[in-house]
Amino acid sequence: METGTLISLALYFIAMLGIGVYGYFKSTSDLSDYMLGGRRLGPGVTALSAGASDMSGWMLMGLPGAFFVAGFSEVWIAIGLVIGAYVNYRVVAPRLRSYTYIAKDSITLPDYFENRFADTSRALRLVSAVVIIIFFTLYTAAGVYAGGTLFQNAFGLEYEYGLLLTAGVVVAYTLIGGFLAVSMTDFVQGCIMFVALIMVPIAALSIMGGSAPVIAEVSQISPAMLNPFYGATVLGVISLLAWGLGYFGQPHIIVRFMAIKSLNDFKMARRIGMSWMIIALIGAMLTGIIGAAYMATHGGDLGPAAYLTETGELADSETIFIVLSQILFHPLVGGFLLAAILAAIMSTISSQLLVTSSSLTQDFYKAFLRRDASDKEQVLAGRVSVLLVAIVAVSISLNPSQNLLSQVGNAWAGFGAAFGPLIILSLYWKRMTRWGALAGMIVGTLTVLFWVYVPIAGAPLSSYLYEMVPGVIMATLAIILVSRLTEQPEPAVGREFEEMEGDIQQHAE
After folding, report:
1. Tens digit of pLDDT for each residue in 185-235?
2. What is the Cα–Cα distance from 477 to 455, expressed in whole angstroms?
């Protein structure tokens, strides 16, 4: 590995660990500080930390790889994500921030569900916590897998060592600094990702001689590369657009909305977050498209490399960003660009680890084992939980069975179906009951699992239609039907919320 690359990566790791130490001294005095940053995030940190924790290594590896192979037929994913993120800012963010604060200052989603519906049975807390732990462990495993793949393909490091290095740094600053450290590192990582996704496609386009040669070359590769409708089916387009439905139920994203300092900050956060997302997605898509043209014309001249076959073809489409960053830039800059991939991976892993540890601590340890646990004891339990979840995720990633996009897609659909309809209806529908909420979670989760793992005619149903679609539909129907059939209790936070509704609507505009 070049010295410049090593220097860039070393500086990146030092910066992340330094932020973790800063977070330790600044905001880990009690559980609310450690798990939610004391609800003091500004709009910029809220927006970029939500974006960075959302996109993960998928933004710099999975999405460019998909466009490298299939071209603009994959654009429907990006369109669905943009629409979903925008609606999430408008429909969910302000109300969730207000509702979770009114509902006894709920720190976690299971906490909110229990307080929102005055669920003395604790069933809502238990089931939602189980869903979070299962799907986030799988989601975290996908992120660790991406880190191992990066070190294997870019540095020739053994895959297992790459896993351990990625997980080790993330665990260190997450465990030490808590939510504030995670949000601040996500902000920095979001900036790095943004710059990298502008630099790489522009440099590759310049080397290719402009847009005309690129268009001509990709047209020869496949007629599908520039045609978003080529080979498209109705179910296929719906499946790709449906990724946007997942935003309403992603705990690691919406927890940022719960932590923002003021309702007044949401408008600015939305503008920053959506601008960042649209530009970054365009950069990722162009990296794949231009990368396909570059490899078709220059791949045979690159010589033997870890990421190329003997004929100069890309061995793994998901490494196209890595390839371009290393062959188009000076090693010092190339190291910065590789740090962008690490930033994408680590930002998501850290958020998932913290949300999972929050659930283990607040919704299991305190709720069922140590109800009188002090804040200091809960913070310690949270740190131990971070370590335990990371160990399980690394164990799963030692034998990966799917590509990165599929792993992320399954976990994304699981959360979207289990929590998305529940969160939206809990914020807008007064007639909703705790039994309806419980039914929605269970039905949504089971529908996704059935769609992914039960084969019909030799293939899972997810090969025909993305599991998010039936999961969200069935969860919504379950919530409405069961709520109608069960007695409506007095909402635990209904009257207080109604008094604030005018202000919430004003700040959402």
Report:
1. 888 888 888 898 999 999 999 988 888 888 888 888 877 788 888 877 888
2. 24
Cβ distance 492 to 116 under 8 Å?
yes
**488 SS3 class:** coil
pLDDT tens, 458-501? 788 888 899 999 999 999 999 999 999 988 666 555 555 555 55
The angle subtended at Cα 236 by Cα 234 and Cα 237, nearest 5°, is 70
Q: Tell which residue, 415, 21, 130, has the closest CA to residue 252.
A: 415
Characterize 288-315 residue by residue with b for buried, 16 or more Cβ atoms within 10 angstroms of its Cβ, and e for exposed: bbbbbbbbeeebeebeeeebbeeebebe
Q: In the predicted model, is pLDDT for residue 508 greater than 50?
A: no
The angle formed by the CA atoms of residues 468, 474 and 478, to the nearest 5 degrees, is 140
Cβ atoms of 34 and 382 closer than 8 Å: yes
**Which uninterrupted H or E stretch holds 129?**
helix 123-155
- Predicted pLDDT at 300: 61
C-alpha dihedral over 338, 304, 72, 64, to 10 degrees? -20
CB 436, CB 486: distance < 8 Å: yes
Which residue from 481, 485, 430, 151 is spatially nearest to 307, judged by alpha carbons? 151
Maximum mean pLDDT: which of 59-63, 75-79, 456-460: 75-79
- Does residue 19 contact residue 175 with C-beta atoms inside 8 Å? no
Rounded Cα distance, 307 and 267, in Å: 43
Asked if residues 65 and 294 have their Cβ atoms less than 8 Å apart, the reply is: no
Distance CA 444, CA 433 (A): 16
The amino acid occupying position 179 is: F
Is the pLDDT at 28 greater than 70? The verdict is: no
**Domains observed in the chain:** 3-400 (1.20.1730.10)
**Within 10 Å of residue 216's Cβ, how many Cβ atoms?**
11
Mean pLDDT computed over every residue of the chain: 82
Residue 323, C-beta contacts closer than 8 angstroms, at least 6 positions apart: 291, 295, 305, 307, 308, 314
The string of DSSP letters for 388-417 reads HHHHHHHHHHTS--S-HHHHHHHHHHHHHH
Three-state secondary structure of 138-199: HHHHHHHHHHHHHHHHHHCCCHHHHHHHHHHHHHHHHHHHHHHHHHHHHHHHHHHHHHHHHH
For Cα atoms 255, 261, 266, give the angle at the middle one, nearest 5 degrees.
75
Using alpha carbons, list the distances in angstroms from residue 61 to 281, 292, 403, 427, 441. Answer: 12, 14, 11, 35, 31
Contacts 24+ apart (CB under 8 A), 114-117: 115/492, 115/493, 116/426, 116/491, 116/492, 116/493, 117/426, 117/432, 117/433, 117/434, 117/437, 117/489, 117/491, 117/492
131-174 pLDDT, tens digit per residue, is 888 878 877 887 788 788 777 767 777 888 888 888 888 888 87
